[in-house]
Amino acid sequence: MRVVLAFFVTLFLSACGTTQLTPVQQGPAVSPLKEDYFQVRIPTHDGKELAATVYQPKLAPGETAPLVIATHGFGGFRAKRPMSIYGKTMITGEAALEAWKRGYWVVFYEQRGWGDSDDVVRMMDPEYEIKDVTTVIDWSLQHLPGVSKVDGEWAIGMIGESYGGGAQTIASFNEPRLKALVPVATWYDLNAMAPHGH
After folding, report:
1. Quick one: fold of 2-197?
2. What number is the average pLDDT over the span 64-91?
3. How far apart are the C-alpha atoms of 39 and 18, rounded to whole Å?
4. Which of 104, 137, 153, 164 has the fewest CB atoms in 10 Å of its CB?
5. How is the chain split into domains, by residue range?
6. Which alpha helices (H) appear in the chain, and where do they start and end?
7. Alpha helices in 70-154 (DSSP H)
């Protein structure tokens, strides 16, 4: 019984670690990639780290795949694994995992101050939460082989509900690499969240 328990504890703990990726030369996959997922920490411009789960599609040598950046709503968290609460009960998680199953790269990150990410919540501050969208895109293009281009431009989209929808909408004003947005049930005005300054 102890051997079985030790096996499962070891298996569980091995799934909790993060993977350190080295930068890659962008272009089609050089060697085959299997469908997989792993945890990473993405450094930000101000020395903090964002927790993320990378969902890697199956790619043959020479193949590429579009990239989907996913993030959660206010008070939420990322889908750390395919069989997670967020991945099975929230539309953003379900859609992100479906994109992965259909052959897309997915980077599902936790915004600063939430889940396993560092720092505090700043309510869509352009110098922090919004810059973090660009940071996640930059990191992805530096570390994930085989991200697609269409007509010479990166094939990158973003999905998120509520708070995550607001992040992508605001980020899209300064981030030309975002080609598709899926803001789900998001607010359109931060003042609507606290009318009359309350």
Report:
1. Rossmann fold (3.40.50)
2. 83
3. 5
4. 153
5. 2-197
6. 2-14, 85-89, 91-101, 131-143, 163-171, 190-193
7. 85-89, 91-101, 131-143
